[in-house]
Amino acid sequence: MPKVTVRYWAAAKAAAGVAEEPYDAVTLAEALDGVRERHPGELERVLRRCSFLVDGDPVGTRGHETVRLADGGTVEVLPPFAGG
């Protein structure tokens, strides 16, 4: 099973209480299920508004269950940012 790093930014980082953490997951959906299990509550609400990058590529509207993760890869959790 691929081992990936999930990195949290802004409100997601505040809700998770950490900047990043490892997960074992084959798809983005599996990784996010793990995140929700580990951090029930506020982070679950934040995730509903987030966009995601997998190894630097935007996930966009693709189904999270279709986005495969590579061993050593990175998932960036990006809440909406103010300003910009």
UniProtKB/TrEMBL annotation:
<dbReference type="InterPro" id="IPR003749">
    <property type="entry name" value="ThiS/MoaD-like"/>
</dbReference>
<dbReference type="InterPro" id="IPR012675">
    <property type="entry name" value="Beta-grasp_dom_sf"/>
</dbReference>
<protein>
    <submittedName>
        <fullName>MoaD/ThiS family protein</fullName>
    </submittedName>
</protein>
<dbReference type="InterPro" id="IPR016155">
    <property type="entry name" value="Mopterin_synth/thiamin_S_b"/>
</dbReference>
<dbReference type="Pfam" id="PF02597">
    <property type="entry name" value="ThiS"/>
</dbReference>
